[in-house]
Amino acid sequence: MPYSILDIIGNTPLVLSTTLNSNPNVQLFFKLEGHNPGGSVKDRAALNMIKGGLERGDYSRDSKLIEATSGNTGIALAMIAGIYGLNIELVMPENSTKERVQTMRAYGAKVTLTPADVGIEGARDYAESKVKKEGFVMINQFSNDDNWKAHYKTTGPEIWKDTAEKITHFVSSMGTTGTIMGTSAFLKEQNPKIQIVGVQPTDESKIPGIRKWPKEYLPKIFDPKKVDSVMEVSEKEASEMARRLAKEEGIFAGMSSGGAVAAAVKLAQSIDKGVIVTIICDRGDRYLSSDLFD
Fold first, then answer.
1. 163 a known binding residue?
2. What's the Enzyme Commission number for this chain (predicted)?
3. Which fold has domain 14-35+154-287?
4. Rounded distance, CA 283 to CA 32, Å?
């Protein structure tokens, strides 16, 4: 039976850590979201958001779509919008890696770069202004319930099944928080004792894909009750772990994945026994023009 590219989103591999985890009574698994066709976990949410919006009639092929993104969501939206014949403008800080910008343009999206000093918040403000003044329609991953529901429907069930229902801890970086919100909702329904651990950067750190949002920009889909604890990681810890992941585990991923794994390794060392799953949210090749792997 022939498949479309959209049919292979999800069902990503779950692999066991063979080197980084030193606790023999803990199994640490990595869920390899870079195996999605758009190269990241964001393919799941992008597909669900676009399908949901079309089904509800929020927009059509004649609409002008816009979304602010730090990278992976934009790539996923560009790919899927192109397949559906939708026009989309993606707004990013100008210090985003060249690979991300080029990939979005390759998929047919218009890319607008906003000043680096105002960060993703500035990109969000720009997109909001285009909605108010020029009739654009925003996907709005930060308040769109189809974001977290993608993970409730797919990521959570996959993890539950692939760990033979033995998962005890789930660790995820927090950006839009869609991944952790949806996966938490599903896993807690199966076993309320499963611990959900969010990962945030320390105050002085800048880690692409992981945020500690100012109150006025906090994603509306975020529910703190769905997260049992939060671990902070530094920029140095995240980048060093991304390099160790490639060198020692053969897993080529970005800095946000390094941050999640740094937290998961600390967690593994602090518990007596358990089964930990953490999200490797993308692939490292979209960071080659940065200094991450220098």
1. no
2. 2.5.1.47
3. Rossmann fold (3.40.50)
4. 9
CB atoms within 10 A of CB 263: 26
The answer to whether 14-35+154-287 and 42-138 have equal CATH topology is: yes
pTM of the model: 0.94
Two tokens, residue 164? 């033979």
DSSP class of residue 198 equals: E
Tens digit of each residue's pLDDT (9 = 90 or more) over 68-120: 998 899 999 999 999 999 999 999 999 888 999 999 999 999 999 999 998 88
Residues with a catalytic annotation lie at 42, 256
The residue ranges of every structural domain in the chain are 14-35+154-287, 42-138
Q: Taking CA 61 as the corner, what is the angle to CA 55 and CA 67, rounded to the nearest 5 degrees?
A: 85
User: Is the CATH code 3.40.50.1100 the one for domain 42-138?
Assistant: yes
Paired sense of beta strands 26-32 and 14-16, if any: antiparallel
